[in-house]
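Hello forum,

I keep getting stuck at the same step: I have a sequence, I want structure tokens, and every attempt I make locally crashes halfway through. Rather than fight my setup again tonight, could one of you with a working pipeline run this one for me? It's a single chain of 383 residues.
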Amino acid sequence: RAAHRNVLLLDAGDQYQGTVWFSRFKGREAAHFMNLLRYDAMALGNHEFDEGVSGLLDPFLKNVNFTILSANIKAKTSLANEMMKYVLPFKVVHFDSESVGIVGYTTKETSFLSQPGDDVIFEDEIEALQVQVNELTAMGVNKIIALGHSGFNVDKNIAQKVKGVDVVIGGHTNTFLYTGTPPSTEEPAGPYPFMVDSDDGRKVPVVQAYAYGKYLGYLNVTFDKKGNVLEAVGNPILLDSSVPEDEHIKEEVEKWRKNLGNYSKEIGKTSVYLNGTSQACRFQECNMGNLLCDAVLHENVGQPDKKSWNHVSMCILNGGGIRSAIDEQSTNGSITMEDLLSVLPFGGRFDLVRVKGSTLKEAFEHSVRRYGIGSGELLQVGG
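Reply #2:
Ran it on my machine without issues. Output:
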């Protein structure tokens, strides 16, 4: 902001979930710190619905002082109608005599990836976006950013098919894009920005900036007077120790951290690296998946059923439900409740069910139906 004019700070969703902070504060922490950072807009991600519509409305939507966006969410109940008072399809930002439109979208898979219940419907992103982009164009806005949370492939489709969108900023697949030599361990899935040829003959930059707050995506876009993109350059900025700490934010972090003391007590030890990364558990067998399934089996085998040789013979677990690794070197082998909540943050349960072999086969077929894109269905197995 100090070095550039006309700056927008945008978030592509999924501020909910993933750490002990969310387990304790349920979204109030995200609202508080995003307000301090002075965000301009945020698109809703699927995890914003993990606590239902009420769990999004009360702790988060009612407390943020920036714009929340999604063009493809429609309300079905009075509770959802209340929620939609705080969610807009688009926002227009004015820079002197120039206007920039920001239109939001949320993955239509949210209905089964999260817990929105029957309160809302998630429509097709491209169809919903085109309606709102047409409205922005009719208002005379000729510089339009699509900001959303549907994954890199959908981002590219939006850039190609939604007429009038000039820039796409996405999330959901945690895609790392970088031009040049990357500054850390992530391997780029393509250049930053990734340029897409639109159906109406334009070059549309598409960006994502990985995950976990590790990077700040930086994109500098130059438009001509007609709103066409002349240049789009940048790269994700690695937020390592070279970035100075903000003393006020640091004080606020420490103030909130005092409520997390009980989560930092040691409850176990490990002598090996427990790999719970998406790169491992969504693409292959990972030792964190093995450990979790073995723990489930151990717990259930301890409660025998006299009717069969063993009332539990195997465990299956979505690789996408495993959200973090435990590094024995950085923690001297210590495992805390905070670590466990980072690995399994969603508060789900393990169900013991009897299934036919044919049903199990269907589960494995479903597990690999989209293999290769890291979508999370790949099963971790024990037994």
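The radius of gyration is 22 Å. If your local run keeps crashing, start a new thread with the error log.
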